[in-house]
């Protein structure tokens, strides 16, 4: 099936899923959780990252959201990125961070990222409007000799212990945020099966879906998967899809290309992508943004067909996941 056919038949437009259990029956039925989310802005790649982020903050500022959260690959903790970070911090309500794998490029370490973003810890949790929010750090080192090459994508033993205790200590429905997907086989968390099993056991113990949904970035795609009655939702990059050296194209100008050397390897989105989420007693509603590619699309460049669960698309779909 060609990419365009797949998009038209399964992605574009509102999508409904039915959950088999009374998902939020143990929460206050009048409670609603509303938040704005963006992922993979890549300040250190995109020439117009400031404008993209400001568009999201401007939109979030007129929404009555409980908080905003970014899902990693945001910016390196360098002095020249302080103005970019100040755009994020200008949001008048609560804001939260997830650490991505590219924040430590350029010789930075995780603690410098935590300090720069004023995070409490690399992983943490908090309660909001009758929900328990858990933020994971998928950048722990895998101690195994058979670990995957490249960037770390692992949740370590100490963090697993913390996560287990944190889940057991709350009776609220839980929403999980991570950078790397807990669902995807390719480039997702290496020990994703262990983490999913932890969630599923907690749900069995509670007798209902205590862990409701898991949001991730990293993969620059728009996709939802259901595994054993838990939803794994991938939020597309605010900025682009990576294509690689075989498909490099100058899409803006020679001046921009000289200053921002990595853009030519991407297929940028014309408008920034982000989403606003509402979760209540009956449903999880995603309101996304639709855009287009700057310059030739991946189809026009004859890029290989992506896997079904990794569509290359310039949008975040509207979805209505009914319980």
Descriptive overview:
- With 323 residues, the chain is an alpha/beta fold.
- It has one domain: 4-Layer Sandwich (Purple Acid Phosphatase, chain A, domain 2), CATH 3.60.21.
- It has helices spanning 3-10, 49-62, 82-89, 110-117, 157-168, 192-206, 254-259; strands at 16-18, 33-38, 67-70, 94-97, 124-128, 131-135, 174-178, 211-216, 223-227, 230-234, 240-242, 266-268, 275-279, 283-287, 319-322.
- It has a seven-stranded mixed beta sheet, with no helix packed on it. Strands 5-6-7-8-10-9 form a six-stranded mixed beta sheet, with helices on one face.
- A hairpin with a 3-residue loop joins strand 13 and strand 14.
- Helix 2 (49-62) packs parallel to helix 3 (82-89).
- The longest helix has 15 residues, at 192-206.
- The radius of gyration is 19 Å and the shape is globular.
- What is the terminal separation in angstroms? 31 Å
Report the mean per-residue pLDDT as an integer: 91
**Using DSSP, what is the number of strands?**
15
Tell me the domain tally. 1
Low-confidence region ranges: 1-27
Following the backbone from N to C, one meets helices and strands in this order, namely HEEHEHEHEEHEHEEEEHEEEE
By secondary-structure content and strand pairing, the structural class works out as alpha/beta
> How many individual helices?
7
CATH architecture level-2 label: 4-Layer Sandwich
CATH superfamily: Metallo-dependent phosphatases
Q: Tell me the fraction of residues in β-strands, as a range.
A: 15-25%
The CATH topology is given as Purple Acid Phosphatase, chain A, domain 2
Strand order of the largest sheet: 1-15-14-13-2-3-4
Task: Sum up the overall morphology in one term.
Answer: globular
């Amino acid at each position: 099936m060609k990419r365009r056919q797949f998009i038209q038949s399964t992605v574009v437009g509102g999508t409904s899923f039915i959950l088999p259990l009374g998902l939020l029956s143990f929460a206050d039925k009048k409670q609603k959780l509303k938040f704005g989310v963006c992922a993979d802005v890549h300040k250190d790649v995109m020439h117009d990252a400031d404008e993209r982020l400001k568009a999201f903050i401007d939109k979030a500022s007129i929404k009555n959201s409980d908080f905003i959260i970014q899902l990693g690959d945001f910016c390196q903790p360098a002095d020249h990125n302080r103005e970019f970070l100040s755009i994020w911090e200008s949001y008048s309500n609560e804001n939260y961070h997830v650490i991505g794998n590219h924040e430590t490029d350029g010789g930075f370490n995780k603690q410098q990222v935590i300090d720069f973003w004023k995070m409490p810890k690399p992983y943490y949790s908090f309660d909001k409007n009758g929900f328990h929010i858990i933020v994971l750090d998928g950048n722990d080192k895998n101690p195994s000799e058979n670990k995957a090459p490249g960037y770390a994508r692992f949740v370590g033993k100490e963090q697993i212990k913390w996560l287990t205790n944190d889940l057991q200590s709350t009776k609220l429905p839980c929403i999980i945020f991570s950078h790397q997907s807990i669902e995807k086989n390719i480039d997702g968390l290496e020990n994703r099966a262990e983490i999913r099993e932890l969630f599923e056991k907690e749900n069995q113990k509670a007798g209902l879906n205590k862990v409701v949904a898991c949001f991730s970035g990293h993969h620059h795609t728009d996709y939802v998967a259901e595994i054993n009655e838990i939803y794994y939702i991938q939020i597309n990059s605010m900025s682009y899809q990576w294509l690689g050296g075989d498909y490099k194209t100058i899409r803006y100008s020679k001046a921009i290309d000289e200053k921002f050397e990595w853009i030519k390897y991407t297929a940028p989105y014309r408008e920034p992508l982000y989403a606003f989420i509402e979760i209540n007693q009956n449903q999880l509603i995603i309101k996304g943004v639709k855009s287009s590619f700057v310059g030739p699309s991946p189809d026009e460049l004859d890029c290989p067909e992506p896997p079904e669960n990794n569509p290359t698309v310039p949008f975040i779909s509207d979805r209505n996941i009914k319980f």
